[in-house]
Specification:
There is one protein chain. This protein is α/β, with parallel strands linked by helices and 360 residues long. The two termini are 18 Å apart. It folds into 2 domains: 5-137, Up-down Bundle (Four Helix Bundle (Hemerythrin (Met), subunit A)), CATH 1.20.120; 142-356, Translation initiation factor eif-2b, domain 2 (Rossmann fold, 3-Layer(aba) Sandwich). It has helices at residues 32-40, 47-61, 66-77, 84-101, 106-112, 115-144, 171-180, 197-207, 221-226, 252-262, 293-296, 337-346, 352-356, and strands at 5-8, 11-15, 26-29, 151-156, 184-190, 212-216, 232-235, 239-240, 246-249, 266-269, 297-298, 301-302, 315-318, 325-328, 331-333. 47% of the residues are buried. Helix 1 runs antiparallel to helix 2 (47-61). The structure holds 5-S-methyl-1-O-phosphono-5-thio-D-ribulose.
Length: 360
């Protein structure tokens, strides 16, 4: 699969996810504003990927010195409100700037401190965020594959794959690794209206890895479950509150309610950078509302008049009670999530597990 995010020779290249699967093209970002616009237009999308792209955006902003970095961070933080990984990555970059500048004033900085040194330090931090995410996803896959049995039929929503993360993916990484380990995995991909991340991205990403994939329209999930064709549901996350309430792509809550009715487990897979330590529950998670034209059109063709109103929230929040487990890089968290999440946030990551599982 093509890398969704590439840093090359001082520029950021983002795979244009609006054009996948039929066109593989990269958009070159030469400055921080280019990166911010790419996030807004969803050239790059998915919670971890947005955070990684934003980190590189700060590197590009550093050309202009500390004031420009601050302006860049503010611009990037206004792009998309729901995925907390964006703010997590920007905080890491801000901390790297502060530790570099230490006690120097901005005037000192302008006069004496070589810009290149700061840029190098920020680039190391951004590359570190990117590489750490790749490693973490292997661990999520390692723990997550344990919930899948030999012949397993899984339903997923949106795209929580490598396109959304920079590594093998979270929810989809689990499926890819389980398949590599010899399990027979059949995957149903919800198409995920309005932007069709399931139909365009997840199905393609899994298909090129050789998994058996079947695309369904979002409104077919209930009937599929009623027919007994789904063993479990695995989705990603954009922001998880400390009690386990989880924001993910609009339609995830529908699936969770359906799972409850049909007695099917629903798992969330996400790195700990998706957990918002400032939110006790999901009530305060900011939900992005996007352009009505995304609903008003299909394949570029208008399907109803502009005068008819549209509601277009990009995410919903699934209450913790409907989630069977949260698969992270430190293991599978279970209820009560207040306790398991608090423990997970201070647990150390055991990268040896990746080697032990032969994933290296
Ligand atoms: O609007 P998008 O495409 O950025 O939404 C992406 C999702 O909702 C994903 O499920 C989520 O970010 C998890 S990605 C590992």
């Amino acid at each position: 699969m093509p890398d969704p995010i590439k840093w090359d020779d001082g520029f950021l290249y983002l795979l244009d996810q609006r054009k996948i699967p039929f066109e593989i093209t990269y958009v070159k970002c030469a400055n921080c504003t280019d990166v911010a616009k790419a996030i807004e237009k969803m050239i790059v999308r998915g919670a971890p990927a947005i955070g990684i792209a934003a980190a590189y955006g700060v590197v590009l902003a550093s050309e202009g010195g500390p004031r420009e970095i601050q302006r860049g961070i503010e611009r990037l933080s206004r792009t998309r409100p729901t995925a907390v990984n964006l703010f997590w990555a920007l905080k890491k970059m801000e901390n790297a700037v502060s530790s570099f500048l230490d006690k120097t004033t901005e005037d000192d900085w302008d006069a004496h401190v070589p810009k290149k040194l700061l840029k190098d330090k920020l680039l190391i931090t951004a590359l570190g965020i990117h590489e750490e995410e790749r490693q973490i996803e292997k661990l999520i896959a390692f723990y997550g594959q344990s919930i899948l049995f030999q012949n397993c039929r899984v339903l997923t929503h949106c795209n929580a794959g490598g396109l959304a993360t920079g590594g093998i993916g979270t929810a989809l990484g689990i499926l890819k690794i389980a398949q590599k380990m010899g399990k027979e995995i059949q995957v149903y991909c919800d198409e995920t209206r309005p932007l069709l991340q399931g139909a365009r991205l997840s199905s393609w990403e899994l298909w090129i890895e050789g998994l058996e994939v079947i695309v369904i329209c979002d409104d077919m999930a209930a009937f599929l479950m009623k027919k007994g064709a789904v063993d479990l549901v695995i989705v990603g996350a954009d922001r998880i509150a400390l009690n386990g309430d989880t924001a993910n792509k609009i339609g995830t809550y529908n699936l969770a309610v359906l799972c409850k009715y049909h007695d099917i487990p629903l798992y969330v897979a996400a790195p700990r950078s998706t957990i918002d330590i400032d939110l006790t529950d999901g009530e305060a998670i900011p939900i992005e509302e996007r352009n009505p034209d995304e609903v008003r059109t299909f394949g570029g063709i208008k399907i109803f008049p502009d005068d008819i109103s549209v509601w277009n929230p990009a995410f919903d929040v699934t209450p913790n009670g409907l989630i069977s487990g949260i698969i992270t890089e430190v293991g599978i968290l279970k209820k009560p999530y207040e306790e398991s999440i608090a423990k997970a946030m201070v647990a150390s990551v055991n990268f040896k597990d990746i080697q032990r599982a032969g994933f290296e």
